[in-house]
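pasting for ref. prot 1 ->
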Amino acid sequence: MRSSWWLRLAVVCVMVVLSAGVMTMSAAVVGKLEIFSWWAGDEGPALEALIRLYEKENPATKVMNSTVTGGSGVNAKAVLKTRMLGGDPPETFQVHAGQELIGTWVVADRMEDLTWLYEKEGWKRVFPEGLLKLLSTDEGIWSVPVNIHRSNVMWYVPQNLTKWGVKAPTTWAEFLAIAPKLSARGIVPLSLGENWTANHLWESVALAVLGPEKWDALWNGKLSFRSPEAVEVWKTFGEILKYTNTDASSLSWQQATDMVVRGHAAFNIMGDWAAGYMATTLKLKPGTDFGWMASPGTGGVFMMLSDSFGLPADCAARDNAIAWLKMLGSREGQDTFNPLKGSISARIDSDMNKYNAYLQSAARDWKVDAIAGSLAHGVVANERFMNDFATVMEIFLQGSNAQAAANAAYAIAIQSGIAAK
């Protein structure tokens, strides 16, 4: 009888364990998850690493990678707008943290508040306070950041500068002094790509001319877009454009970076995804095969942007999307993605031994530099302003009229609600 009692007890214990296992499996997400982003080509490996991690953690799911190619998400945002307005949102989508999301889809009541997820995962303790403010309104927290990128970086090849007898300029005045010497040798002083890369260059020039406080003042209505300082930005920008490549409009940002790597150009201003491209795709060694510094005139300032993912209201596979967001915010997710992407973790507790020399330097600067938000990548302005600013840039590239560009920027600032009349 005694042995029979122990046998029955053992059977019950086994059944409990098996039952718990079944419950755990049934709680796991199943089915499909659509991920919408613009990470393709050379940025694809970082996204693919995240997808592999997600499918490993959620083996009953299959990720649909809906990527729309085009630098800085120019094409993806247009497709996303069609889907969001048409009632067919992806389960989750890449979006720049800040006004690109809040000023477009949060104000339209198309996103779900994620405050509960932040509290459950303890993320308020591991994401910096300033970043949390960028992701939030008084009504909630709206996306999960996967990284921190730096916009204001000048790239170059150290041995090429030595060969040409020039040093990386710390101001735009220094650049304009050495640019004619480089041009005389048949070297493009500053490589440039398609329209959005001109916007990207413009914000670094504006940050140098205005400084971080007046840069912020543009976006809170305290400094007019047609003020003398703002006009000076366009004048300086126009002088710099004289020393860029004439075929810029036909080149991607990668091709503009290639001009520097191949010695056809001396410098390029691009975000630190260029470091990911050079290190991951081209297999170049940071600090040896390519060098970097803050763009001229912006030393001590970190112009930032952050890629993030949100949860559209009424998405088809909500549980699967939440599982994706949990993975993105985790330390493992961040440290899987960022070393490949050429960005640093948004968390304060990541293992920096997994990051290369450039990313370690960026992480150090992030902790001590003054912080400014990017225009070209959705931090400081809403989608309406950004779309119209691309038209202002096209007009300026054709005519180089600084006052006209400043007046046009002032007009679209009023129309998009950034500045008062």
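and prot 2 ->
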Amino acid sequence: MYIRFNKNNLNQLERGQAMIIATIFFMIITLTIIFGLAGPVTRQGHIVSDLFSSKQSYFLAEAGIEDVIYRLTSGKPVPASGVLDLNGGSATISVTSSSTGRFISTSANVNGDVRNIQAYLIIGTGISFHYGIQSGQGGFYMQNSSSITGNVYSSGPIIGSGGNMIYGDVVSAGSSGLVYGVHATSSVYAHTIGNAAASTIVDKDAYYAVRTGTVTVSGISHPGSADQPTADYPISDAQIAEWESDAAAGGTMLSSACDSYASSSNTCTISSTKSIGPIKIPFNLLIKSSSAVVTINGPVWVTGNITFQTGPTIRMSPTLGSNNVAIIADNPANTTGSGIIDVGQSTAFQGSGSVGSYVFLMSQNNSAETGGSTVAINMNQGASALVAYALHGLATLSQSVGVKEVTAYKISLTQSANVTYDTGLPSTIFQAGPSGGYTITSWKETQ
């Protein structure tokens, strides 16, 4: 049998071949386009994934910086190094301390994408002392010709003997607030102003719910005024505890480091020129002699009593600049009978030579708060660049003593004692601890 191809058959065959060839070319072109697009799409997918991981890494590094700043500003411990893990990534954090601040660096890694951030914080606004005198519920008492140059705040009564000068505002907070027996050159705020026992003079305005006795108001009287709210102390127990920890980290003094040591009274005597701090002193500490100049380089924690006699000089190290450190008397084993500071006549206190530098004496004796009569801080003649602080105790100032600020649970001024508030105290800066507030001077990403 023969197959005969006519012209029509040939034309159909040619058209079929052409269609097959066209289909093949179309498939080749399509596959070429598909494979050509697949590469960029895949690469773009990797880029998007890397970008997402990179952003995660960046924000994780930021979180590491922010965690350290939060710890610094809230008084929480800040380790020298650490690791922050979040959402499958990790950030290595390093904190370097200096006398002026903290240097923080973080390196975060998410899926191999690494981002590095650094920040530098300098010690900033610091602890705010808004009053020349601040007392707790134990109150504030003035006798003889004692006076205050600055504002006075108390969570308890403020009582003078009649005519004691307060050159500033006077605030006795809360529903039991009471002010009388003083001459205030500015305004007075208290639930009750006045008492029959002594006259009260207010040169400006008086804000009160009750007014009684002999009260002279030169400004405007505001009867029915709301009671002033109570205020926290500028330095907390937690902050003092951290400074004690900083002192202990500097080592513990041995009795051989004293000029003399009496084992019977467990007393270390310093009578020559020395530099101390940071240091923990496990004795009673006696600093005496007019030739003794003791330079404080860091926080000092005495687990007993501190006594200054016969005119020594206590000064902050010039290397501290405007930074401050505390000298603390705190005996945790005997909080009612120990941790006492006694400042004798002619003792001189000096800052570092920079503006805003003071000697901070702190007692943790709590006799007054528990109803006792033990004096936590007793100051006589002398002083100068000194801030006295007894969060739970009684501070007494007598004779011609002059200090920059006093804060205590209970305060008593007698004879010609004067507290002259220094305008630099609202921004007092400490070398270490959470008290010092920080200012961020740089925050940037590095390679």
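The longest strand covers residues 386-397.
Residues 7-74 form the longest helix (68 residues).
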